Amino acid sequence: MTSRYGTRPTMKDVAAAAGVALKTVSRVVNDEPGVTAGTAERVRAAITELGFRRNDSARLLRTGSTSSIALLLEDIGDPFSSALSRAVEDIAAERGCLLFTGSSGEDARRERDLALAFCARRVDGLVVVPAGDDHRYLLPETEAGTPVVFLDRPAGGIDADTILSDNAGGARDGVAHLIRHGHTRIGFIGDLPRIHTSAERLRGYRRAMADAGLPVDERWIATGPTDPAHVTAALTRLTSAPQPVTALFTANNRITLAALHRLAHHRDRPALVGFDDLELAELLRPGLTVVAQDPAALGATAARTLFDRLGGDASPARRIEIPTRLIARGSGELPPPAR
Amino acid sequence: MTSRYGTRPTMKDVAAAAGVALKTVSRVVNDEPGVTAGTAERVRAAITELGFRRNDSARLLRTGSTSSIALLLEDIGDPFSSALSRAVEDIAAERGCLLFTGSSGEDARRERDLALAFCARRVDGLVVVPAGDDHRYLLPETEAGTPVVFLDRPAGGIDADTILSDNAGGARDGVAHLIRHGHTRIGFIGDLPRIHTSAERLRGYRRAMADAGLPVDERWIATGPTDPAHVTAALTRLTSAPQPVTALFTANNRITLAALHRLAHHRDRPALVGFDDLELAELLRPGLTVVAQDPAALGATAARTLFDRLGGDASPARRIEIPTRLIARGSGELPPPAR
DNA sequence: CTGAAAGCGCTTACAG
DNA sequence: CTGAAAGCGCTTACAG
Questions:
Q1: In the structure, how far is the CA atom of residue A8 from the C1' atom of nucleotide D10, in angstroms?
Q2: A324 partner at 20 to 30 Å CA-CA among A132, A297, B119, B164?
Q3: Residue A187, helix vs strand vs coil
Q4: Domain HTH lacI-type, which positions (chains A, B) (predicted)?
Q5: Residue B234 CA distance to nucleotide D6 C1' (Å)
Q6: Residue B236's CB: how many other CB atoms inside 10 A?
Q7: Can you point out the beta strands (E) in B108-151?
Q8: Closest by alpha carbon to B151, among B101, B223, B193, B194?
């Protein structure tokens, strides 16, 4: 143990200790053929004695690939992002790839800074959950051969692989479910309409209503910020109108949560279907009926697409929609009040 | 745009294009002084024209630090791990550090492989949520100057900074809460006792009972695997004995979840306090009373400790306990049945 | 089977 | 103000 604190032995040190050339050490470390058993033994002894461990960053600089990819999320701390991460990590691990993760916090500027920082590290590829809507800043990177796959939301200004949930189809299914249970006046509470997922879910709502031949009163549709105060206000407006809605479709988990809080003390609860599943949904009374996304499939598909590109797939950019699943647990099967 | 696909321009290319030396390009890229405005302008033009972006991996090889740290979790996909990640990422970002994350899946072997892979990349430091109980494999790394901070569970065979929840104190608070509400026969359902957090929480249970002068019947204590089947069996045993317990302390979120499922159809529900908070806990009827950990504080403290070490702090290894918080919502305030 | 030289893309240390 | 040389820790390409 001669290593001074903070100084690591290099192949050069090992070579000197074993009385061989650098290249011979490299051969032993990498299990390359062409080293006598005796020489290899001497080298291994020196490696153990010095506590040598190969510097992979140096190795990878020479090699050209970094064996790492980056995943840029909205917020690694939320359950949806973390489920995506796990799926991406598993696929990366199969390929011997390490994973950088980073959170944009919905800030387009931070998304850009992080993405470019990852590219500057020369990650082999990038999976991005977009925060902003202009991704032309990534064009030089993709042109230089760093593949980028967009996840959960579409990118702007760049033609690249995109993996999305079937937002419109899922919302349509959820609303159709409410219609099947006798509802005709159905409210929609959603996020800002400029957000792609939000617009798609609203489209699904309209489609379900149209498919059933039901008219839509525009006052039944509330889009805007998803903080509890706004959601609560929208909910009150929809349920206390002269002709109140008898059912609600809440278009994401934050909205569903706020609505549940508001409805907890509500008599004559409207039926409710939410987009996104929640942890204790089946333990509520009534159980919460949801349109669940499949984050594991989203993440895995994004990662596989990325590795396909790294493997040389040069076909046109793909756009893949992952199906959602309706889980009926009670709240979506409440009948409308008898008139 | 002369970049061929897959080939990135280097400082050498920029230098040639601008008709200057490599070093001058470096100066411009790094905003170092000592370049005339005109020269700098020529260099910048060449950078833009070629689409040059500095290779930070190469830079960092020369510099010695990688400006990255790694966080090794049990499973990035679970809410506790992801909350830790976010906290660590925020502190790392303040320092301009990128974050590798990886999941051991509770497998000691995988923990080791991942930790050493990160060390081989020469991350500046490592935060590890232990899966195994022998971490001597990290001794050469810490000796070589790579600081390691252990999080959520203690390490084995290595003297290093450790950040833990106050598991014993939290469990004691939860059980004392049940005692204050009139319970004397209180069941404990916990994980395998060889797991540190599990043993500590059991210790807290015993302490609360002893502090109140209450005897403990060993049949009230069930430790073992935390799959729903085992938990349900334990629960049935505890609540259907001749002298059943009137209250339960469930020692982690998986156990609490399984217990809630089992109790949903139960008349004369026992009071319940769970260790770990759950997302919809306050919307249940009764609301779920919990002892909540503070993953944000755990992660932030671990990351700060790591950066203290990187900043040169060479004081003895620290062991920091983060307080828990009792959140009363109803289930823990149910009285024992009148006799 | 073994090794000396060149190079991955940068920064450091020094000279003009 | 500018640059030529050496070096970070490895691998590649080639020679003996």
A1: 14
A2: A132
A3: strand
A4: 9-63
A5: 70
A6: 11
A7: 125-128, 148-151
A8: B101
Are A171 and A291 contacting, i.e. CB atoms less than 8 angstroms apart?
Answer: yes
**pLDDT tens-digit readout, A73-103:** 999 999 999 999 999 999 999 999 999 999 9
Determine the Cα–Cα distance for residues A79 and B328; give it in Å rounded to an integer.
Answer: 24
Which residues are registered as beta bridge partners of B48?
A: none
- Are the C-beta atoms of B278 and B327 separated by less than 8 Å? no
Cα-based torsion angle of the residue sequence B216, B218, B219, B224 in order, rounded to the nearest 10 degrees: 120
Categorise residue B100: left if φ over 0, alpha if ψ from -120 to 50, beta otherwise: beta
| CB-based contacts of A203, cutoff 8 Å, min separation 6 | A168, A171
Instruction: Tell me phi and psi for residue A239, to 5 degrees.
Output: -95, -10
Question: What domains appear along chain B, each with residue ranges and CATH number?
Answer: 11-54 (1.10.260.40), 66-165+295-322 (3.40.50.2300), 167-293 (3.40.50.2300)
| Helices within A186-227 (DSSP H only) | 196-211
Query: How far is the first Cα of chain B from the last one, in angstroms, to the nearest whole number?
Result: 86
Tokens 């073992």: give the residue: B224
* Rounded Cα distance, B173 and A213, in Å: 58
- Say if the Cβ atoms of A101 and B101 lie within 8 Å: yes
Q: What does the alpha-carbon distance between residue A161 and residue A25 come to, in Å, rounded to a whole number?
A: 42
- Identify all chain A residues contacting B89, using CB atoms and an 8 Å cutoff: 76, 101-103
Which run of H or E residues covers position A102? strand A98-103
Shortest-distance nucleotide from A60 CA to C1': D10
* ω into A225 cis (within 30 of 0): no
Cβ of A100 within 8 Å of Cβ of B103? The answer is no
Q: How far apart are CA B158 and CA A116, in angstroms?
A: 38
